[in-house]
Design a protein that fits this description.
The structure is a homodimer. By secondary structure, chain A is of the alpha/beta class. Helix content of chain A is 45%, strand content 17%. In chain A, helix 5 links the parallel strand 1 and strand 2. The N and C termini of chain A lie far apart (76 Å). At the A-B interface, helix 4, helix 5, strand 2, helix 6 and helix 11 of A face helix 4, helix 5, strand 2, helix 6 and helix 11 of B.
């Protein structure tokens, strides 16, 4: 049972008022011997102030809400770890919410978190969110006056604070490397069409090809969905189009390409080369370690917390887009084609 | 800005008392037309009761704390997903805490969660917890009168409610399968010695061997730590001992065996066979899909929530050990040795 002021007063043999004064550092008028007794009794009884009551008084709960798609996906698990580590370090707590990529659940969670009196929300937009839905979410956050940071998924024309990665550069790194390795028939397994981060990777790939004087219309696209199965189907489709290399726009879809290759007896990289994206899971334990564009996901989680805490403290709603830089991790899944 | 009763009263053109009565369903004496106006104004202003205040009144916050080692580990990410999905379905929220396997952080989190007024805690004991430390944690939870369920890691002689897996049976399934496949020189990469779940797997392996009239002293053990690196080192060590098969006591260490095999040019399963444990990650995308003992981790997460909610509601502290059954997933990483 949580100790109350009354319990401490009984043990210390003084009044509840005296206990309250001592524990709130207002005990100027109280003898030192009583003070000592109160503090000792409080310690013995494991007394800790009721933070729900404190939260009501201060109207701050030192709690952040994190809304993501699915924590069992390595990308979001790594992000969550970063968010939680930074929160813990700064003395904040984290309420975790998974939307399973449903816009409806996203809005429900915003209401719930507001009900809990959280001080700010870090949000990764649901996969199905188009421009209108994102605007709806941001409007709701503003209407409820909740400080918020959007992480990972990114919409240029929405005003807000975003922490993401320069995905145009990420696509460029993958495209440039494939061209340097002699690949001119490239297939891309993209993310959902409504997501800007997917379109940005495509822009980057095209820039890399144009720089080398290659025809960007030669690139084959398969519309994936960021899950393993769509990677598998994408590989099956692209293989019939004569591509020599596949760039999967996230790591799970690259794993789907591996799964398809295992099943079909296709060799990576001898028969087909693969580049993945994210680099948050097990790229290096694969039989042919996966060459990958790396996103600093853990760091993005930490940065989001730094920003949200600052916004909460300063009461300033910053509108900025902070982009981390991706990095190409060359391993063994791309072969060098001699022209 | 969150709407207050005063804002609704202004918009509806009535008193704050009337608003309060209507919103708390105590408006018998208030004309229907006023009721309608109040409800409409509340909706237009997006009014929602302040749950921090409600929590104080009811002394229940409908929030559960989940304390785990590390959410970026697939095992815990899957567990967390199960916990969050069940909580969401039942209308509860989740505060997530990572201990990074430090006992000290485990205790700090219990205090913090208690401060937040959470109603119950689901806890996975830190890897370094020996019997004394576990007892200390459980004593603290009891002293603070916090309903709690311990999930995954298991201590027989501690009183409490545990949700775990029958790891003796899991070890038995792995051992029996290896013997059936003709392996008599078996190496095991164990978990930390202080963990009962690791010792249980060993007991199961020994039972399987004894059933077949094999000498249990022929089994080679390498003391692992449940991380990839210790799997890699374990494989390197066991390979020098002439084993034909390695049983890694979790999935990450099995991945470590794969990494070692990749680096050393050793073929799985032609040169060495591997059985893993957990089956929460990417066992089936590996070049040689990993044969694995499967734990129903997601289901364990859901079950823990069902139990904790029941304990909170009934105020009964149940002391039980609920064991899920493991299952062997046969894939391609074990070869058949002809004797």
């Amino acid at each position: 049972m949580r100790a109350r002021l009354k319990d401490i007063a009984e043990r210390a043999g003084c009044s509840v008022t005296a206990v309250s004064l001592v524990l709130n550092n207002k005990a100027d008028s109280i003898p030192d011997s009583t003070k000592q007794k109160v503090l000792q009794a409080a310690e013995e009884l494991n007394y800790r102030p009721n933070q729900v009551a404190v939260g009501l008084k201060k109207s701050r709960t030192n709690t952040i809400g994190l809304i993501i798609s699915d924590v069992s996906n390595n990308f979001f698990a790594t992000l969550t770890k970063g968010v939680e580590d930074e929160s813990n370090q700064e003395g904040w707590n984290l309420i975790l919410c998974n939307t399973n990529d449903h816009h409806k659940r996203e809005k429900e969670y915003i209401y719930t978190l507001d009900d809990k009196g959280i001080d700010g929300i870090i949000l990764c937009l649901a996969k199905e969110d188009d421009f209108g839905k994102v605007q709806g979410t941001v409007d709701l956050l503003n209407q409820l006056n909740i400080p918020h940071v959007m992480v990972d998924r990114f919409v240029t024309d929405i005003e807000g604070y975003f922490v993401s990665v320069n995905h145009e550069e990420g696509g460029y790194l993958a495209g440039k490397y494939l061209v340097e390795m002699g690949h001119i028939n490239i297939g891309c397994i993209t993310g959902p069409k409504n997501l800007e981060d997917s379109r940005d990777r495509t822009r980057g790939v095209c820039r890399a090809l144009e720089e080398q004087g290659l025809d960007i219309e030669s690139v084959r696209f398969y519309p994936g969905n960021y899950d393993i199965e769509s990677g598998e189907m994408g590989a099956e489709f692209l293989a019939t189009k004569g591509v020599t290399a596949i760039f999967a726009y996230n790591e799970l879809m690259a794993y789907g390409v591996y799964r398809w290759a295992n099943k079909s007896g296709v060799r990576i990289p001898e028969d087909i080369s693969v580049v993945g994206y994210d680099d948050v899971a097990f790229a290096d334990i694969l039989h042919v370690p996966l060459t990958c564009v790396r996103q600093p996901v853990y760091e993005m989680g930490r940065e989001s917390v730094r920003q949200i805490i600052q916004m909460i403290k300063t009461k300033e709603r910053k509108k900025e887009k902070v982009l981390f830089q991706p990095k190409l991790m060359v391993r063994g899944s791309v072969s060098h084609i001699k022209l």
